């Protein structure tokens, strides 16, 4: 019971940190990072704590499916939001250290123009 409580509290703290990061970070990419990385780990910890607390195999399988779907969809949705934000100018270019997408988009436009 102690292990499940610790996992639930740690997962809740990580989810809280993700929420604070979404409200405090300066641009789209940083907010997107805060919304996906600690939130997914927080969800995994909370589902593990819930599985330990309940202890039935039926619930554990359902919680495992929740975690798998989150692990599959979070990176894909973050990637799509990042690309859409970049293309619409919502990304602050002064905060980018490396900008590979501009070169890729320029090469794709040149290839399409041929």
UniProtKB/TrEMBL annotation:
Record keyword Transmembrane helix present: yes
UniProt keyword GTP-binding, yes or no: no
Transmembrane segments: 6-26, 38-57
Alphabetized Pfam families for the sequence: PhaG_MnhG_YufB
Keywords, alphabetical: Membrane, Transmembrane, Transmembrane helix
InterPro entries per record: PhaG_MnhG_YufB
Domain of life: Bacteria
Family named by the database record: Belongs to the CPA3 antiporters (TC 2.A.63) subunit G family.
Cross-referenced NCBIfam families: CPA3_mnhG_phaG, PRK12674.1-2
UniProt-recorded name of the protein: Monovalent cation/H(+) antiporter subunit G
Source organism: Occultella gossypii
